[in-house]
UniProtKB/TrEMBL annotation:
Gene3D superfamilies: Spore Coat Polysaccharide Biosynthesis Protein SpsA, Chain A. InterPro entries: Glyco_trans_2-like, Glycosyltransferase_2, Nucleotide-diphossugar_trans. It comes from Arcicella aurantiaca. Signal peptide: none annotated. This is Glycosyltransferase involved in cell wall biosynthesis. CDD domains: DPM_DPG-synthase_like. The chain crosses the membrane at residues 220-238. GO terms for molecular function: transferase activity. Residues 10-171 form the Glycosyltransferase 2-like domain. Keywords: Membrane, Transferase, Transmembrane, Transmembrane helix. SUPFAM superfamilies: Nucleotide-diphospho-sugar transferases. Pfam families: Glycos_transf_2.
Amino acid sequence: MTKQRAKILVIIPCYNEEASIQNLVNDIQSVKKQHDLPIDILVVNDCSKDNTLQVIKSLDCLYLDLPVNLGIGGGMQSGYKYAYRNGYQFAVQMDGDGQHPAIELPKLLQEAQTNKADVIIGSRFLEGKGFQSSFFRRLGITYFKWLNKFLIGQTIHDSTSGFRVFNRKTLELVNQYYPDEYPEPEAIVLFGMRKLIMKEVPVEMCERQGGVSSINSFRAIYYMFKVSLGIIFVYIRLKGKWKM
């Protein structure tokens, strides 16, 4: 008898995450067994320069080893394409640096399966628990909240959160196009313009368990400026493309 395919794919993008990826995959496997979740795990190695690939190969998971570095957007779309083309009903994004505790996974999946939302976003700001990020990054995220409200008329409190669940409808969209520069905040505009239903769920996040963040306090203002341009560019381009 053929084993039934898992309905849910957890996608973990990785670039130089040898210090954290093993614990994360093992934690997800533990949660999977504890809650009897029908999930598979796919790790996307984005040309890591450390021993990430060797660690991944030793784990109980699927993996993609990209031939060139695509960045977070390209890496995630590779995972989304895999999920869509292999018939998964839901895809989950979890960062490879350990910021997204596996114990919070059932909460997001329950919301995705019991409500009609197309996109579920794990938000650290709804209840203010756990790691809240740096002051400068919180300032930027608050700014993006109001920018999104202006552009698409929806309030998203944690638009840079990479802890997300997409249903089949959303997977069909991101299989065709997914932002590659600053994908998390830019995708909010994409989803809003396509009238997808987005819902935030409170989660507790942790500080990264390894690797180095690409954003720090000295680059926060520059980051806000570049992301703003990216968001506005996506909005203008898609508005023109979908104008009837």
